[in-house]
Amino acid sequence: MSRPVRAAALLAALLAALFAGLALVAVPLTVGQVPSAVAQPLAAGEVAGEAVTDPAAVDGVLARASAAAGALPREGELVVVSFSETGPSISRMGVAFGDEGVRILREGGTEVGRVDGQGFLRSSSTLLQVGGVEQVPVSSERLHAKYDVAVGAPVPLDTGLAVAVSLSERATGTLRETLYADHVTGLIVRRETYGRDGAPVRTVAYTRLEVAERAPSMPRARGRDVQGHEVTAADPDAMRQDGFVIPTSLPRGYELTTVLEVPDAVVPTLHLIYVDGLYSLSVFQQQGRMRSTATAGASELRTATGGAVWRWPGSEPRRIVWSGDGATFTALADTPTDELLDAIAGLPTDPPPSILGRLDRGWSRVARWVSPKDRSST
Amino acid sequence: MAERHVSGDRLSAFLDDELGDEDALRAARHVADCEPCLGELAALRATRDGLRALPSLQAPVLAAGVQARCRQLARVARRAKLIVAACCVPVLIGVGAYVLGGDAGEVEPTTELFLVEHLGRTGGGPVPTAVGGGER
User: Fold this and answer.
1) Shortest CA distance to A184 belongs to which of A105, A347, A72?
2) Which residue, among A2, A343, A66, has the nearest Cα to A200 in the 3D structure?
3) Which residues contact A242 (CB under 8 A, 6 or more apart)?
4) Which of A79, A374, B18, B25 is the Cys-Cys partner for A368 at CB 3.0 to 4.6 Å?
5) Band (B132; pLDDT cuts 50, 70, 90)
6) For residue B104, what is the nearest residue in chain A, using CA coordinates?
7) pLDDT in tens, A312-333
8) Which of B92, B108, B118 to probe the A interface (max A CBs under 10 A)?
């Protein structure tokens, strides 16, 4: 059995077992009243049938989904199945959208969200609050510039019909994502992400979703030590003069849209946001080389340029850290890992750690200390 | 009654003026009154004087060889010291560079802050946000 077929079969078995268990406790749903969960995984080939590739039709589906996401208070349960070299990782979480913002309560107690322009993360020990957090707008122009999009006929899911929207990368013809928009409300209730080899790399699906006048309150995780940060817009040119690397675009069609700084961070820190129309890629840049212990538990990967980066298997959003040109980078995105590695190749990456590299670093430090010019600049 | 005889070692020390004042005085008194000890002292003195009167002997051939060998060994030792020092310097410099090239005091990514920032700005849109896997 080939890897894609085996992975698809495993995904189907996992989700079937998951949904079978949830069906025992789920509230009965009615089409027309509540956009429902999905039940059976759909193979990419089943999406099409009467596929429509008219950009206007596609935009209509996506615009309706975007409008519904911003207008409908809702609450539900989301399952994330992430595939990696160490096997599938399954996470469940409660999700609530309402007037106050979005809140995601992870199984185990950690809660993340955005309320009135303030992001937060609450765990049993910490409440982290970040001010000045606004959502990045979505651009359909970028989407159509990179992807071929097709809308299939409505397909029956367990609790209702959903329209499948497939997005294929035009340059390679590879299917990267299939979105399922609820036929009644327009909300996207399921997404499937594929790697370059066609194998599924992630599935995100609502197993329960209810629309209400107001989003029901969710149990909040308790936090004790409060940490506050404020994030502000930054001038890219000024930041470049301060030593930050800020490319206006990255490989595979990622364009820079936002430059932010965290003024009260321990070391000068910048947040760059790149988008390709479908995915958003956050690149955090901290001045200073990364501590080697920061990669504990992570797997070492290589970029196309040979740079060494590290990723934690199963982490969603996908998180990659690395050092390059004296800075520490952290990339967060929901892109497939292969695409993420291609994109970050447009940023500085150091070669893999070695004894010679460490010796060279030591020499460089001595040279900086000895040279008055270098010393004054550090 | 005469004191006990002075031992040969003490007589030799007396002869070489190596006894303390009190011991030397006691020995002198005894030897003055003791024929055997006086005789032994005289014999010791004669032996010492005889030895001192012997001409000094040299072994010219052996000394030259040994001295040449010693000089050669000294040169080798100096050369070895230089070689060891020459080897130690780069090793010490390398160890120093390796230590200085370590990670002390460098940057730790603030994961939680980054996660909140990323999700706050990119999550909550039309496409369901993927959050999962390990905490790190």
Assistant:
1) A72
2) A2
3) A268
4) A374
5) low
6) A291
7) 877 888 899 999 988 999 999 9
8) B118
Q: Provide the number of CB pairs (under 8 Å) joining chain A to chain B.
A: 213
- Quick one: DSSP state of residue A222? P
Which residues on chain A are in Cβ contact (under 8 Å) with B92? Answer: none
Pick the CATH number of A231-370 from 1.25.40.10, 1.20.1280.170, 2.30.40.10, 3.30.200.100: 3.30.200.100
Interface predicted TM-score of the whole assembly (ipTM), two decimals: 0.77
Its pTM stands at: 0.69
State the DSSP H helix or E strand holding residue A234, giving kind and residue range, or none if neither: none
Comparing CB atoms, the residue among B111, B124, B131 nearest residue A114 is B124
* Measured CA distances, B85 to A293, B76, B96, B99 (Å): 36, 14, 16, 21
Which tokens go with A80?
A: 């994330």
B126–A361: do the CB atoms touch at under 8 Å?
no
Candidates A247, A280, A230; CA nearest to A346 is A247
Answer whether B107 sits within 8 Å of A328, measured CB to CB: yes
Q: Which residue of A has its CA nearest to B112?
A: A121
Report the alpha-carbon distance of residue A310 to residue A306 in Å, rounded.
13
Q: Across the interface, do B116 and A130 touch by the CB < 8 Å criterion?
A: yes
- With contacts defined as CB-CB under 8 Å, which chain B residues touch A271? 114, 117
- Considering only CA atoms, which of A183, A200, A177, A143 is closest in space to residue A6? A200
Q: Where are the domains of chain B?
A: 8-53, 58-98
